[in-house]
């Protein structure tokens, strides 16, 4: 057997092993078309985000959209995502908290969004509950489950939770105050925080499912997403993750799981599974704590760097 043949066999074995055992993750963005009056305006955010996804070979993501924001600019922004091949899905009309409305009020809001968002060619009947809250009573929870089924909708759960929206608020407030943000440090902070949460929830899944499912990452359509999504994708791939489409992610068996517990506050699908297994603590990782994030932001982004430790 020749040396080159042996090398080829070893290389093929390595590639097959990587393909079989790499962890999988789909990317989704909530709240589109989200307000844009800070670092980027809406069209610039969309253009930057679309380019970043294309440049980093992310085939498709999903934008869970709030139809109340469909003014002329909002429609154009969603159309640009649609025309780039990405999915447009339902995130209600006005982004209400189901815990604060009756089932009838919440249902009407959901149906209004269904009607307005159906104008987009890539619209899918996927619904993500705002704040991930699915009902603080059994009647609300089961009523929404029935309504989704009646209208042919999928419950577009997430498995990987984070507070990227709070990181965005820290970033935008610093820009507003004319602070000099080092974008390299900002990127490292963003990627580090998100990876910390991703790996935590994947470990939680391994504990309770004894496997790593096809994950669904919750992000928001924001400026920091447009600026740093490429860096996050690079880091994921470097750590052995494979980027898949949301449609592929929702073929996982975990998509059929429904918790029996009425949850006023929902930690996401992995948290629901953990609760079913008896876990009551550690459902919200520390990266979902505003004080923790603010302290890290001040230390890792705003503080003067120690030049002796900088690359």
From TrEMBL:
InterPro entries: Glyco_hydro/deAcase_b/a-brl, NODB_dom, Polysacc_deacetylase_ArnD. It holds the Pfam family Polysacc_deac_1. SUPFAM superfamilies: Glycoside hydrolase/deacetylase. This is Polysaccharide deacetylase family protein. It comes from the Bacteria. Gene3D superfamilies: Glycoside hydrolase/deacetylase. The keyword Hydrolase applies. Residues 23-244 form the NodB homology domain. Keywords: Hydrolase, Metal-binding. PROSITE patterns: NODB. The lineage of its organism: Bacteria, Pseudomonadati, Pseudomonadota, Gammaproteobacteria, Kangiellales.
